[in-house]
Write a structure and sequence with these properties.
Structural class: alpha/beta
Number of helices: 5
Oligomer: single chain
Shape: globular
Helix content: 40-55%
Strand content: 15-25%
Distance between the termini: 23 Å
């Protein structure tokens, strides 16, 4: 099985198993940094692959492994499975080049962290009724099928 097929199957299975998020249809990349108006998927991927020691003004923040939004983010933006990303970070730590992004427990902790750290960037899976807390801006919206 190819990596791309495995990624598609992981995303599909996640969407089926997590029925509580059945209305979710967009991934939002968010920040309190209002100077950065737009950002591309490629730039976001590079920010997250640089981890804690990134050379960009935006510090990446991840949700913990197993969170629905993280699974969708990994599939749509990173283009990698969780196991492939774990392998990448093991290599980066071993060689001393970098460490993975900060992890927070849930979306509430993520939005709180972003509100208190204007140089941080995070992500959320949202539905049509979602509203962002005051002080946060959407840097990028990515549609996906349910």
């Amino acid at each position: 099985m190819t990596a791309a097929l495995r990624l598609v199957l992981t995303l599909s299975l996640s969407l089926l198993l997590l029925g509580g998020n059945a209305d979710a249809d967009e991934l939002w990349l968010i920040s309190a940094n209002t100077q950065q108006v737009e950002i591309s998927k490629e730039v976001v991927k590079q920010i997250y692959l640089q981890g804690e020691q990134g050379r960009t003004p935006l510090q990446p923040v991840n949700l913990v492994k197993g969170e629905f939004s993280r699974t969708i983010f990994n599939a749509l933006v990173m283009g990698l499975t969780e196991s492939r990303l774990q392998s990448y970070w093991s290599q980066m730590r071993f060689t001393g080049r970098s460490r993975p992004p900060l992890e927070v427990e849930n979306t509430k902790a993520l939005t709180d962290y972003l509100l208190n750290n204007s140089n941080a960037i995070g992500y959320l899976v949202v539905d049509d009724n979602s509203q962002l807390p005051d002080g946060l801006v959407v840097l990028l919206k990515i549609d996906f099928e349910k």
